[in-house]
Design a protein that fits this description.
alpha+beta, 4-stranded antiparallel sheet, 3-stranded antiparallel sheet, about 30% helix
């Protein structure tokens, strides 16, 4: 005589595994499918892996995620990632679900000389010129320091009436060079292009 309980157990065990839907343990967002095994003792039950559900997640669109909540699947906006402030290009990391905040863009600021406009990042000529002025002045000051170092002992020799003709000549050349350095701002291409005077050889 056949044991009916054994037949029932065999029938339950013969069921194929079933697709389940896994979620991230922290964010609860849908991350992919897994398999649920049949319960050999209960034909109405499935053995689900941790963080997996039998309910099919909803289809989502761009910048959306399916998230499991206490009441079931929900669709949330997802703009997580790196963004940049339109004010100054500072990087902003968004790591939570929700709408995209105002005043940020996905496009990084190309250079320190760019500013945000309605059409995106554009070069601000005033910033470019201001930076060129700073660099030109720094280079001028560096060259002036060299000239001053050369002039000091020559001037001492002249002041002490102990200068040779060559020293008097070189003092004049170095002073002319220093004057020319101070006049670079008068050049038509300044500060973008500068014809730097050559120091006395």
């Amino acid at each position: 005589m056949t044991d009916k309980s054994s037949e029932a157990g065999t029938e339950i065990a013969a069921r194929e595994p079933k697709i389940a839907y896994a979620v991230h343990p922290v964010t609860q967002e849908y991350i992919g499918t897994t398999m649920a095994d049949p319960d050999q003792l209960d034909e109405d039950n499935w053995l689900l892996p941790a963080g997996a559900y039998l309910e099919v997640p909803p289809e989502v669109g761009m910048n959306e995620k399916a998230v499991m909540t206490k009441s079931g699947w929900a669709i949330v906006q997802d703009f997580r990632g790196a963004y940049y402030a339109k004010t100054d290009g500072t990087e902003i990391i968004i790591d939570e679900f929700g709408p995209l905040p105002e005043g940020i863009t996905e496009t990084p600021k190309p250079t320190p000389f760019h500013i945000w406009s309605d059409s995106g990042w554009i070069v601000d000529d005033d910033l470019v010129i201001a930076d060129a002025v700073v660099k030109a002045k720094n280079e001028r000051d560096r060259r002036l320091a060299v000239a001053t170092t050369q002039i000091a002992p020559l001037q001492d020799a002249v002041d002490l009436e102990d200068a040779t003709d060559e020293e008097v000549f070189m003092l004049k050349k170095w002073k002319q060079y220093r004057v020319a350095l101070n006049r670079i701002g008068d050049q038509p291409g300044y500060p973008k292009t500068i014809d730097w005077p050559s120091p006395p050889g």
